[in-house]
Amino acid sequence: xxxxxxxxxxxxxxxxxxxxxxxxxxxxxxxxxxxxxxxxxxxxxxxxxxxxxxxxxxxxxxxxxxxxxxxxxxxxxxxxxxxxxxxxxxxxxxxxxxxxxxxxxxxxxxxxxxxxxxxxxxxxxxxxxxxxxxxxxxxxxxxxxxxxxxxxxxxxxxxxxxxxxxxxxxxxxxxxxxxxxxxxxxxxxxx
Length: 191
What we know:
Blueprint: H1 3-20, H2 27-34, H3 38-44, H4 48-72, H5 77-92, H6 101-109, H7 114-137, H8 144-162, H9 166-186
Helix pairs in contact: 1-2, 1-4, 4-5, 4-7, 5-7, 5-8, 5-9, 6-7, 7-8, 8-9
């Protein structure tokens, strides 16, 4: 199978899974959307779970490049932490926003699929490590990073459920407050 055909399958599955849910999409729908045969799909992805893992790998790359692109455009270390929430604000305004694909996958499949649960955990741990690196670069204590990551995760869930992008601005404001307090405490100043 060519890389182009494999990409078409993953892209089609991603769009369908994200829009309708993993359990609601059969391989026939993926076949139709990708324009390839079921035999070709199953040759590349022996099970639907294998295809879901490939979709999550694609989503991980999209998330990582999106967040890092937004953060890397900023020079100031403190503003780089805030840029994570600006990325979220842009993402939440996209017409097809349906929440975090990883949170969706875990909610729908995590209990039944150890592979999906592990892929989600690896992705979320990677994000937490990234935020920890940004916090360290800003001179903040290590305890700030998980707090900021939880704000970002909660904003994703809230935005998906509420159907609005307001959670990004609310999480950004809370992050600014937490960052200011953590930096003041690190410098021995009153918060």
